[in-house]
Structures are given as C-alpha cells and as structure tokens.
Amino acid sequence: MNDLSITIRPEVPGDAQAIERLHERTFGPGRFVLSAYRIREHVDHLLEVSFTARIGTLLVGSVRQLPVMIGETPALLLGPLTVEPPFRSRGIGRMLMERALQDAKDRGHRIVLLVGDEPYYGRVGFKLVPKGRVTMPGPVDAARVLVFELVDGAFEGVSGAVAPDWSKALG
C-alpha cells in the first residue's frame, strides 16, 4: 500500500450514487435477495458510522452500518463492505472496518452484527454467533452470522430476531 495514498472519510449524501454503482459492479443484482438487504429496505444506514475509501478523488471502497434490533437490544448491522476489485488485497477493507468499528464505539454503540465469512472478518475480531441465538429474515447460513462487541460483554444474554430499528425507519 505504500504506492497508494488511501483516504478514509465519513460517507456524505453526495457519495450515494458512486457507492450504488460500486455495489452494482461488485455484488450484482443478486444482492437484493440477501437477508441483510431485506433489513436495509426499511432503515437507512447511519452516515456518521459509514465510510468511504478514496485514492485521490476516486472512490475505491465503502462500508455502511445501519441500526437494527436483536430482539430488544439495539445494535448495528455492518455492510455492505466492498472494495473495487483492482484495489483488493491492499488492506482497504480492513481500514474501512476498523474506522467504522472505532467510530461506532466512540458514538456509544455496543454491538455490531454482520453476515459474512468468519476467516475474513475474524481478523478484526468478529466472532461466530452461537447457533440459534440470532435469527435473520429469510434463509441465512448460521455459520456466517458474526458479532463484534464494541464493549466487553455487550452480547452476553442477547438473542432474538434481527429486525430494522423501527425508531429510525425511513419516512
């Protein structure tokens, strides 16, 4: 990465179209049937804990987090996280995640959930949710539901269905 100068900054409303095009290129139309997207249909992500990665003015990556409830417990759902294919394997995804998690912690959030590959996300501290503790809308491979405690012990005793945080629902 010493040949690239990466800037991580909070997402702003003007980034939306470029991020959507990035999602189209990297995930394709199949992304809309995923469980996490079902939740995203109802509650928008939080700009203050969502970030972009840029090289100069070129947007090369994005991570978003949105408010959800796990049963009665507020949490964030991380995703989508994506990096333009030519810029992968350079640490950009990790930089985005670390910034998103740190800012979420700084803003008082306690738990971050995601659906993803444990070998990748485990490198920053995500852990497999014990089977049966959390249910997602639609079919989800339980081996891909991961949690990150921003506060030690925050996930103890937490269980239930993951749903949009309706207190933050779109008008």
Description:
This protein has 171 residues and is α+β, with helices and mostly antiparallel strands. The chain is built from 4 helices and 9 strands; from the N terminus they run βααβββαβαββββ. The longest helix is centred in the middle third of the chain and has 15 residues.
Write the layout of secondary structure elements.
Elements: E1 6-10, H1 16-27, H2 35-40, E2 51-55, E3 58-70, E4 73-83, H3 92-106, E5 111-115, H4 118-121, E6 127-128, E7 134-135, E8 145-149, E9 160-164
Parallel strand pairs: 4-5, 7-9
Antiparallel strand pairs: 1-2, 2-3, 3-4, 3-9, 5-8, 6-8
Q: What's the quick description here?
A:
The protein is of the alpha+beta class. It contains four helices and nine strands.
* Whole-number mean pLDDT: 87
Gross morphology is: globular
Percent of sequence in beta strands: 25-35%
What portion of residues is helical?
Answer: 10-25%
Rg over CA atoms: 15 Å
Task: Using brief descriptors, characterize the structure shown.
single chain; 171 residues; alpha+beta; 9-stranded mixed β-sheet; 4 helices; 22% helix; globular
